[in-house]
DNA sequence: AAACTATGGTACCGATCAGTAACGTCACCA
DNA sequence: TGGTGACGTTACTGATCGGTACCATAGTTT
């Protein structure tokens, strides 16, 4: 009944989110949940509490908005890595394990729909799409990050192990979209522990 | 210049492909290459050398055509499994290895775009879409098939190993779409061999 | 007060989407 | 020979797509 907009509290200036951020947040939600091609710019603007014109004042095209959305997701991923590093300083193995646990939880979460970047790669095969460079970049950075951690953890063949873990996670995230995720997370941690153990003692 | 349609050869009856098959073949090509949502029914009909009306005489809707396309892909997958069984009769381990080699080759092939079923699951999140039951069914069947082979091969924890291999392959197929496939196939066979070896001697 | 900027609102553009109506044609079969 | 059903062709529907023109308004700056 009473409109919340009637209480600007006079302080002003700080609690109003600029439209660009609202649009990006709405786009993130809708693109991730329903797929990029399934969401029109109109519905994004509406979900952001604005309109198409304002959207196009901040983004050149839908493709550019998609690219920006993926840059945002890549940023979240990077932030997660640094958060892990801060939570387990000087303990690369603990960082790896925490990452794996986080990914397993992600896989088990029914509201999640896998990796936004990987999904976008599936949905946008055109190799000149502005999104593709973002995707490839982020994936490569993650691989280097994980391989670095494996190396610093003293595990043998760190790049090989990083690939094994990444493929396992990526496979689990996409499989959860096809078959559901019942028990997949538990199997996932067992598998990754086995992989880590295999890279521990021997060459 | 000369139209090939002018030589019915009088024998008739055998070399003309009925429109339903042509449509399904064209849909398979276009859906897989460009994505399901990116392809319109008009272009499918055109690629099949027919028109939209004939398409809708054979398929109730685009969604039903998509489901039929995925049934077709699931059938190809099943046929591949039986072919492997015929090529290596009574040798389940050889069947597993041949399957892995085939998947690795698939991953390395730049013209391929991963698993059609998994891609469809990414592209069609609506859980009441007629395609989803096809996808889940096929994935489950494959899992049971591979687990059965692992068991008959005398490998320990056959279901666990089957999951490991499936996740690895699925992850590779989707990663190849994000990062390319350079050297991924070789790493893939090494990893799967290591996994198989780990399930050989001990419990 | 005047001017400028950012935003919102509405209406529109051409193109394409999934799906349908109506008609013509051809082959095959009784 | 006449009929029947599958196929091809054209044109159409209403909806939605990405993207834009135009104008009104609010807030800030000078």
Tertiary shape of chain A: elongated
Task: Count every helix of chain A, treating DSSP H or I runs of 4 or more residues as helices.
Answer: 9
Strand residue percentage of chain A: under 5%
Residue ranges of chain A: pLDDT <50 for 5 or more in a row? 1-14
Characterize the structure shown.
2 copies of one chain form a homodimer. Chain A is an all-alpha fold. Helix content of chain A is 69%, strand content 0%. Chain A is built from 9 helices and no strands. Chain A has helices spanning 19-34, 41-47, 52-58, 62-87, 92-108, 116-123, 130-152, 158-179, 184-198. The longest helix of chain A is centred in the middle third of the chain and has 26 residues, at 62-87. The first copy, chain A, starts with 18 loop residues before the first helix and ends in a 5-residue tail after the last helix. The model of chain A is unreliable at 1-14 (pLDDT under 50). The interface between A and B is large, with 43 and 43 residues. Chain A binds a DNA duplex (30 and 30 nucleotides) through helix 3.
């Amino acid at each position: 009944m009473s409109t919340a907009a009637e209480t600007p509290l006079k302080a002003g200036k700080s609690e109003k989110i600029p439209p660009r951020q609202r649009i990006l947040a709405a786009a993130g939600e809708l693109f991730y949940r329903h797929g990029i091609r399934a969401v029109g710019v109109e519905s994004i603007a509406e979900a952001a509490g604005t309109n198409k014109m304002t959207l196009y004042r901040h983004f050149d095209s839908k493709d550019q908005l998609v690219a920006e959305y993926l840059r945002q997701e890549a940023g979240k991923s990077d932030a997660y890595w640094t958060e892990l590093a801060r939570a387990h300083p000087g303990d690369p193995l603990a960082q790896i394990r925490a990452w794996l646990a986080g990914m397993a939880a992600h896989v088990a979460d029914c509201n999640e729909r896998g990796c936004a970047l990987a999904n976008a790669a599936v949905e946008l095969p055109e190799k000149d799409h502005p999104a593709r460079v973002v995707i490839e970049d982020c994936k490569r950075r993650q691989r280097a990050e994980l391989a670095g951690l494996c190396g610093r953890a003293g595990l043998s063949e760190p790049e090989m192990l990083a690939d094994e873990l990444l493929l396992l996670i990526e496979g689990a995230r996409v499989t959860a979209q096809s078959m559901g995720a019942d028990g997949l997370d538990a199997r996932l941690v067992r598998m990754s522990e086995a992989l880590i153990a295999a890279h521990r003692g021997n060459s």
